[in-house]
Amino acid sequence: GAVVSQHPSWVICKSGTSVKIECRSLDFQATTMFWYRQFPKQSLMLMATSNEGSKATYEQGVEKDKFLINHASLTLSTLTVTSAHPEDSSFYICSALGLAGATDTQYFGPGTRLTVL
Amino acid sequence: GEDVEQSLFLSVREGDSSVINCTYTDSSSTYLYWYKQEPGAGLQLLTYIFSNMDMKQDQRLTVLLNKKDKHLSLRIADTQTGDSAIYFCAERKSGYSTLTFGKGTMLLVSP
Predict the structure, then answer these.
(1) How far is it, in rounded angstroms, from Cα A78 to Cα B93?
(2) Measured on CA atoms in the order B12, B15, B16, B18, is the torsion positive or negative?
(3) Quick one: which of A67, A94, B28, B32 could link to B94 by a disulfide (CB 3.0–4.6 Å)?
(4) Which of B5, B7, B44, B98 to mutate to test the interface with A (most CBs of A within 10 A)?
(5) Residues of chain A contacting residue B33, judged by C-beta atoms under 8 Å apart
């Protein structure tokens, strides 16, 4: 149980285009999902917290107009990188808040590698 | 300093035990987690411990928590080559659902 999928697993795009990444909780409902960014050999940096049916909460320094997050249902959140540039190339990982025993915990997707040429 | 600190690299031989250490700064942390990340993959939740516990064992994994020293460790018994990965320690602060991650410890298991 508690499986989270991401699509696509990798994407290469031209500078200036927009890319949408999907995050789905497959066997549980998640009112809260998180989007992270990971640079090579670095830890995960939280970009935003996404709550179903409401606006996402962005971390300091993350441009909300560049990284559009939509959490339209209890099993799907999307991250759209608008007008992508090479510096946006990174590994993007989502997680969904689900139950683990008596507590809720984050279950992570497999990640999406974005390369912007 | 960083909220969560880990040593960056650990090398062990197959069959030995591995111990990965982590320190955190927030005494209000409620849960502490260990995640495993294999190359090019997302994070896999290995185990977690509630802050009022000292130890948790799950098959080959043993988590020790010293709340006084804010020190967390993950022991992997009979380490296998398939255990080679990056291991992240994360804390969850009281009142928050977000996690703060360490930089990760790369575990290399040689045959």
Answers:
(1) 26
(2) positive
(3) B28
(4) B98
(5) 105
Instruction: Give the distance between the most distant pair of CA atoms in chain B.
Output: 44
Residue from A63, A77, A80 nearest A17 by CA: A80
Cβ neighbourhood burial of A57 (10 Å; 0-12, 13-18, 19+) = middle
Q: Decide if A111 contacts A11 (C-beta within 8 A).
A: no
Would you call B31 and A46 a contact, using CB atoms and an 8 Å cutoff? Answer: no
Per-residue pLDDT of chain A (117 residues; tens, 9 = 90+): 678 999 999 999 999 999 999 999 998 888 889 999 988 777 888 999 998 888 899 988 999 999 999 998 889 999 999 999 999 999 999 999 877 665 677 889 999 999 999
Give the angle B34-A59-A39 at the CA atoms, nearest 5°. Answer: 55
Tens-place pLDDT, residues B23-56: 998 877 788 999 999 887 888 889 989 888 899 9
Could you tell me if A30 and A96 are in contact, meaning their C-beta atoms sit under 8 angstroms apart? yes
- Chain-centroid distance of CA A83 in Å reads 17
